[in-house]
């Protein structure tokens, strides 16, 4: 089998990447293969081909491996050169529906952007990316996805020696806010324009004939990001590293490092070991989204207008609307989660008041059980505020709400204790817990014994790591 690559990024944007071959995996062994995604992409291959091609052991015919250049604000500090330090874009494929997809290896070895790193990854973090991205896809969240995880047959040095692995992931593209920042920081406006033109043609072709294409491009990215982050917030998902190099202009969730799902509702929840100030805490994610979008707007200013002051005014006009656009997207998410039909002027207050009443109750199960007070009560240490709120909600929700709640709110999310147990077992060579958890999160609205309950007493505080 061959893959019909059509590598427009390499062809159309010279100077935005470096040609780099992945390291050769000495003894590739397929850990998990996403056959459903392969079918969606119109690809067919043997397991031996998948193990070789998605580990770096061999480069599939037609691939043109490159490491992409980008910069980024990391925890607020600007790094003018980051780039793919342990990833190789193999190329692009067209699915049967005509949509274009990148196939990229992650953990596949050093590149010129590695900044002293080894370019490798361990089994646990690569399986985490596979598991969480597939869960997000099943939950209806725009996301990169994973085709396979392949053990490389060599160990990598972290806190201890761990078995190495590569994840093959699929994305609408890997163009980030940081891609624009890389060239803007160098004063290369021709390349900023080239990347913008390419991104518009690939992700927003309906804007090609617009009178002010770069302004409406910013508008379109704002809209997709507002909907994306609102969907995260509805699920209690915390990305953990919302740096500008981790914001894709396609509107997909990208780069699953120290991510996790909040269990007990706490707006200040942080899981990342390196987020010591809470910059990327759950409640801060909408604010950081706006901050990142402002950084994108800065790179596009010369494309908005030749008059610098007017360009700033035009950009600010768009950025000033972000809070309202996010709030609108969030309220749409909350209406679905609350089982509400139509719109009512009191819906925002109803949703806000639920947040105030929840205390530390389990986020996922609270919404799932709203229609069953007997099952809801045990989630709360103090049910007084909820007792006052529930009649207001019942009056607004009306008949048939139970079915709407079950359709909108997952029964199963990747519970942190289960994720860690599955990854620990997989690292030791036992894939059975991972496979069982993967099957559960791929059908998140199906109730399954053993996969729905919060972490047992004594688990935590939970800390995640970047996996570098």
Task: Write structural notes for this entry.
- This protein is an alpha+beta fold and 468 residues long.
- The strands form four sheets. A five-stranded antiparallel β-sheet has the order 2-8-9-7-6, with helices on both faces. Strands 1-3 form a two-stranded antiparallel sheet. A two-stranded antiparallel ribbon has the order 4-5.
- The protein has 17 helices and eleven strands.
- β6 (87-94) and β7 (100-106) form a beta hairpin.
- α4 packs parallel to α17, α7 packs parallel to α9 (308-319) and α7 (213-235) runs parallel beside α10 (322-337).
- The longest helix has 23 residues, at 213-235.
- The mean pLDDT is 96.
How much is the radius of gyration in Å?
Answer: 22 Å
Protein structure class = alpha+beta
Envelope shape? globular
SS elements, strand count:
11
Overall pLDDT score = 96
Distance between the termini: 33 Å
Strand order of the largest sheet: 2-8-9-7-6
Beta fraction: 5-15%
Considering DSSP H and I runs of 4 or more, what fraction of the residues is helical? Answer: 40-55%
Sheet with the most strands? Answer: 5 strands, antiparallel
- Helix count, per DSSP? 17
